[in-house]
Amino acid sequence: MTSTSTDETLLRERGLRVTGVRLAVLRALDGHEHSTADDVVRSLRADLGSVSVQAVYDSLHSLTAVGLLRRLEPAGHPARYERRVGDNHHHMVCRGCGAVADVDCTVGEAPCLHPVTTHGFAVELAEVTFWGLCPRCTAGSVPAGTHS
Amino acid sequence: MTSTSTDETLLRERGLRVTGVRLAVLRALDGHEHSTADDVVRSLRADLGSVSVQAVYDSLHSLTAVGLLRRLEPAGHPARYERRVGDNHHHMVCRGCGAVADVDCTVGEAPCLHPVTTHGFAVELAEVTFWGLCPRCTAGSVPAGTHS
DNA sequence: GCCCCATACTGGAATCATTCCAGAAAACGC
DNA sequence: GCGTTTTCTGGAATGATTCCAGTATGGGGC
């Protein structure tokens, strides 16, 4: 219960009500970084017995909104969520199977890169996604140009 | 018709049949970079009279597959297509309205960045997306944290 | 210049992730 | 404990995209 009571504190600090679903979502993401909403739903059903899809989406959204979760959305794949939110790290995505791995950012805070021309935009963050093949997919190699 | 006959050559060079839909798709994207599939459908209906949605998706896919188009998929927005394919430029996306602008890459060829740790991945390209607010949205400012 | 076959296109239904909605249940300040 | 506000439930709806079966068309071969 240690991590649960810590999560409880985190929720209160951010001004969110402490609910079973929210605690379970946070717990589900411990040790399962980069889970999709569907992964979380399945995890919670195994854990709590039953939860509505909507409750999970609501929780993921509110937790993301207060900065307890970070959402990443690799092109062509459903959104994934992670608890690592303190730094400005990046991601490596396998164009074969969609596997995601974290990549440290050498700068550590956003935006870590700055565009040559801004076109008048107020740049807030630079999202870097490395695409390639994970070790497993490199073996049974997937032809290039399938990035989606 | 100059650009049309050039496009015809491009299609043949890549081993694609020359069809009205494909030529029209290429034409539609001239001067309308970063169009969505839906934009293209509308453009083609105004141009050719009628086209099936599927024909447009098929064309966009095959043109992308042979490297005549590049697809970009900003998180939370439908895919967009552009004809600028020779270099490895990046994009700036407005988190308010979804507007997209090109940003030159200082390196020019992929991958222009290299991850600190590769986790055994064979890295092929580094996709950089700058998020921020376009001039228009900066005016009637959209609160932060809405990046999706 | 015509025929044939692989490839494209049509229209309509299906899929997937996500959101909308209205009502029931739970959180927590008092 | 009580009431208000927020959250959760279940089901229907949405938007982008894909699947499918049938028809049409491009272009290499004759």
Automatic annotation (TrEMBL), chains A, B:
Keywords: Cytoplasm, DNA-binding, Iron, Metal-binding, Repressor, Transcription, Transcription regulation, Zinc. Pfam families: FUR (PF01475). It is found in: Cytoplasm. The keyword Ribosomal protein does not apply. Gene3D superfamilies: 3.30.1490.190, Winged helix-like DNA-binding domain superfamily/Winged helix DNA-binding domain. InterPro entries: FUR, Fur_C, WH-like_DNA-bd_sf, WH_DNA-bd_sf. Its main location: cytoplasm. Belongs to the Fur family. This is Transcriptional repressor. It comes from Isoptericola luteus.
